[in-house]
Amino acid sequence: MQEAELHDLSDDADYAASQLQGSVYMTRSDSTKTSSTTEPEGAEVVYLKDNVTIHPTQFASERISGRLKLIKQGSSLLIMNWIPYKGQNSNARLSEKDRNLYTIRGVSFTDVRSIRRHTPTLGWQYIIVVMSSGLAFPPLYFYSGGVKEFLATVKQHVFLVRSAEDANVFLVNDFENPLQRTLSSLELPRAVSVANVPLPSTSTPLGELPPNENQDAGDGSRSSSSSLYNGRTRQKVHDPARDISIQVLEKFSLVTRFARETTSQLFRESLNNGFAVANERRAHGLSPVNSSHKLVHEAEKAPEEVPVAPDPIEFDKLTLVWGQPRQAPLGLEEWATYLDSEGRVMDSKALRKRIFYGGVDHHLRKPVWAFLLGYHAYDSTDAERDYLKRVKKTEYETIKRQWQSVSAEQAKRFTKFRERKGLIEKDVVRTDRSISFYEGDDNVNVHLLRDILLTYSFYNFDLGYCQGMSDLLSPILFVMEDESESFWCFVALMERLGPNFNRDQNGMHSQLFALSKLVELLDSPLHNYFKQNDCLNYFFCFRWLLIQFKREFEYGRVMRLWEVLWTHYLSEHLHLYVCVAILKRYRNRIMGEQMDFDTLLKFINGLSGGIDLDAILRDAEALCICAGENGAACIPPGTPPSLPIENGLLYAQQDDEVL
Amino acid sequence: MASRRRMLLKVIILGDSGVGKTSLMNQYVNKKFSNQYKATIGADFLTKEVQFEDRLFTLQIWDTAGQERFQSLGVAFYRGADCCVLVYDVNVMKSFENLNHWREEFLIQASPSDPENFPFVVLGNKVDIDGGNSRVVSEKKAKAWCASKGNIPYFETSAKEGFNVEAAFQCIAKNALKNEPEEEIYLPDTIDVAGGQQQRSSGCEC
Ligand SMILES: Nc1nc2c(ncn2[C@@H]2O[C@H](COP(=O)(O)OP(=O)(O)O)[C@@H](O)[C@H]2O)c(=O)[nH]1
Ligand SMILES: [Mg+2]
Predict the structure, then answer these.
(1) Which residues lie closer than 8 Å to A624 by C-beta, 6 or more apart?
(2) Which of A266, A460, B128, B143 could lock onto A317 through a cystine, CB 3.0 to 4.6 A?
(3) Which residue intervals make up region (Disordered) (chain A) (predicted)?
(4) Of the residues A183, A200, A227, which one is the last residue of a structural domain?
(5) Residue A522 near residue A313, CB atoms below 8 Å
(6) In this structure, which ligand is nearest to the CA of B37?
(7) Is B158 in the pocket of ligand 1 (CB under 6 A)?
């Protein structure tokens, strides 16, 4: 069933027609059983949903899926259970202990204060259940939908009202008068206490709680509450700088005590600075470009600038603390030290770390990329790789012959083939022709690009050819200088990036979704700005993501960036932090000049060629470390370039749980 | 803001990949043709000031990726369009056959208030190739299609040689201008709105 959606065999034109009927986004069909099931003790299951999932760690691939149930007991008691599935872990790292830790069992709605619903335009919906105690459970992601239904069911059994403050907050058993409710039960200390200061997210109190924010170590009052989060918003504070730094630091649970103290200080300094400047400006009606900001050129064009909310994570300072200076690329001699006598990479993690911080010398890229891309295994020997190379060459030739042997007569009756070939031929002649390697008429490497792409479109006929692929292949062929080797490296890359080109665009949608969550986490004023200006679809980052910034840097820099990304050293999704880093670099300009969607798109497209890669990589590293688990929780499992989730995992594990 | 909106005319160029959308746009705006344009990824636009009888407008020309797979992006890019340009390659039959698809796709995604009368302009591009000897879609056939869709103005162009590009975009701008709701436009008396509407059915005099 799924196959038909994910690998539509129809060709583009046919598909486009079917697209008119609306597209399917990340369907993971499974059973939705809401019919009442009989429970022991006269309890009745009034709601049941499978594949409700939490993301407990920094690895997006690590998730705990389970079954969510609402059980009615007696005439008025409504109980919520969420029981993780047993066995069949998505990842071995998740222990039984984690499973027990996160289990939600027998939570009565008399103890629930509110339910916050997140309904992103892209990606999975989730809810955060906040208890009367102020603690909150980690976000429950509804992989198979059903949030609306969940709320509807709750509403049938308990008194549920929508908050007047925020349409996505539903208050449980809240009988106070509406006015009081808006002020008290939502707890808006930030909004109240600092109303005169341009704090981030003053307008959306609970809404700005990022997933897993506020992890509360101190509150041990509930025995089973290790999985609970403190959902209560902050104490009333009078020092806005302190408030922000705490808020930011709480988000970053990975920050060590030492780092906390250091940054706390840094934040205070920078924020005090920022506020002083902002206030002064307001007093004098000056343009509010933060003078302490590095981006000097931002000041040069200031037609209708408006006050910009300060960056909650001051960047230059942050990079000082975390982002390491870039190192020299890995060279030949050093490379040899990573290999044993038979050519195995002894410590792949150390190697990846080394490359993460410095990249690879160009003439070393050929062997190293094959490892990074996953074409060669790190523990393979020279001899094994030589052998593989030969086997793979034959295999490549076989696939290539499939299209080579299509005769002109046959092609006449083979529209899909003709169209695909035509599309590829049109694109290879528009790919990197200014690089000498691809320059000039009748360039042999351009022909190779065509042959490899056409062969790939036979190797993966379902995916076929899609624009952007030639951009991804070009540097690979440039480095590998061998047709078959390039092909297999490209295949390895497409194992991860294939979903970018899916007909339903699900890989792109989940990345855009994750990006919006990360910006929300790491720069909520910017997020709010995008929200207000109808930019939350993040389509202006589409090109960045589709082809991994291929068009944003000059050729050599692209290769450097790619090898750093491919190490997957700090995160499989460093590229998303690269996006955030770039956006943050230009945030003041974006908000100060009040860019609308069109202007922003034009601006972002125009950044091509003008971004300082090393600086951005340092920023991205710092952001990735800071965001930690909370950042990872923003990224839905299976988001490229993660290897795809095997479908089986989500289905087979339903019936072995206890109530 | 309101005045800016009045001044801005948004035009979307659609058509199969490789028919010459990017080249046409660059030829019109920058008076340049290059064999080295890259395939468009995502979307981009160029702007050009155009003058109509003493009044200046900004023509914002949107160029999007031609592959059908990317059409889900259309919603974000097509909205607020004032005119849609459909381009095909006179040497590629399929690109002509797909015009209908592109037109419908646009109407669905942009959902203009008055789809019946939304202004389109069709361009048959690359007429320079092989001195016209390799063309497979005749002018007659193209014009017949345009007539059947409510007299869509039709031009034959060459982005490479700059042939007819200026004239085509003049017509495009004119049609975009007509699409603006009248109450929103501060037209100086010298512009004859009614006259413009008459011209429409006659194929924009061009
Ligand atoms: N001979 C000729 N080639 C053209 C013309 N317009 C575009 N091309 C070429 O056709 C290819 C695709 O053009 P491009 O503008 O990128 O098409 P798009 O995909 O529709 O944007 C490029 O190689 C152009 O150089 C034209 O009028 N005449
Ligand atoms: Mg183009």
Answers:
(1) A570, A571, A574, A577, A631
(2) A266
(3) 199-236
(4) A183
(5) yes
(6) 1
(7) yes
Nearby residues of A497 by Cβ (< 8 Å), 6 or more positions away = A472, A507, A548, A640, A641
- The architecture of the domain spanning B7-203 is 3-Layer(aba) Sandwich (3.40)
Select the residue of B37, B45, B101 nearest A17 (Cβ to Cβ).
B101
The ligand placed nearest to the CA atom of residue B15 is: 1
Among A215, A198, A338, A360, CA closest to A279: A198
Residue A26 sits in a domain whose CATH number is 2.30.29.230
Ligand 1 binding pocket mutation candidate from B23, B94, B125, B166 (most atoms within 8 A of CB): B23
Q: Is the CB–ligand 1 distance for residue B19 below 6 Å?
A: yes
Q: Is B36 in the pocket of ligand 1 (CB under 6 A)?
A: no
> Does residue A620 fall inside a structural domain?
yes
Beta-carbon separation of A467 and B42 below 8 A: no
Mutate to test the interface with A, among B4, B58, B72, B108 (most CBs of A within 10 A): B72
| B12, two tokens | 């979307």
Closest CA–CA distance from residue A24 to any residue of chain B (Å): 11
Instruction: Please judge whether A539 and B94 are an interchain contact, meaning their C-beta atoms are less than 8 angstroms apart.
Output: no
Cis omega (within 30 of 0) for bond into A637: no
Band of residue A134 on the pLDDT scale cut at 50, 70, 90: low
Domain limits for position A28: 9-183
Write the secondary structure of A214-238 as one string of H (helix), E (strand) and C (coil): CCCCCCCCCCCHHHCEECCCCCCCC
Per DSSP bridges, beta strands A135-136 and A229-230 are: antiparallel
- Over chain B, what HEC string results? CHHHHHHEEEEEEECCCCCCHHHHHHHHHHCCCCCCCCCCCCEEEEEEEEEECCEEEEEEEEEECCCHHHHHHHHHHHCCCCEEEEEEECCCHHHHHCHHHHHHHHHHHHCCCCHHHCCEEEEEECCCHHHHCCCCCCHHHHHHHHHHCCCCCEEECECCCCECHHHHHHHHHHHHHHHCCHHHCCCCCCCCHHHHHHHHHCCCCC
Q: Which residues contact B60 (CB under 8 A, 6 or more apart)?
A: A598, B8, B9, B10, B11, B45, B46, B47
Nearest of A215, A175, A208, A179 to residue A191 by alpha carbon: A208
Contact B73 A12 (CB under 8 A): no
**What is the interface pTM, i.e. ipTM, of the complex?**
0.86
Measured between alpha carbons, how far is A284 from A277 in angstroms, rounded to an integer? 11
Q: What is the pLDDT of residues A290-332, one digit of tens each?
A: 333 333 343 334 445 567 777 766 554 555 455 677 899 999 9
Same domain, A202 and A306: yes
Please check the confidence at residue B194 and state whether its pLDDT lies above 70: no
Cα B17 to averaged position of ligand 1 atoms, centre (Å)? 9
Q: What are the CA-CA distances from residue A424 to residues A82, A431, A450, A471, A494 (Å)?
A: 49, 10, 6, 11, 17
The domain that holds A416 is classified in CATH as 1.10.8.270
* Residue A422, Cβ density class (10 Å: 0-12 exposed, 13-18 middle, ≥19 buried): middle
Cα atoms found within 13 Å of the Cα of residue A529, Cβ hemisphere only: 27
Using the mean position of ligand 1's atoms as its centre, give its distance from the Cα of residue B37 in Å: 8
* Axis-axis angle for helices B21-30, B165-179 (nearest 10): 90
Q: What is the pLDDT of residues A531-587, one digit of tens each?
A: 999 999 999 999 999 999 999 999 999 999 999 999 999 999 999 999 999 999 999
Reported as type and span, the H/E element at residue A275 is: helix A257-284
Q: Is residue A350 a part of any domain in this protein?
A: no
Residue B135 beta carbon below 6 angstroms from any ligand 1 atom: no
Judge contact between B122 and B154, C-beta under 8 A: yes
Question: Could you tell me which of A385, A308, A305, A313 has the C-alpha nearest to residue A345?
Answer: A385
B107 C-alpha to ligand 2 centroid (Å) = 21
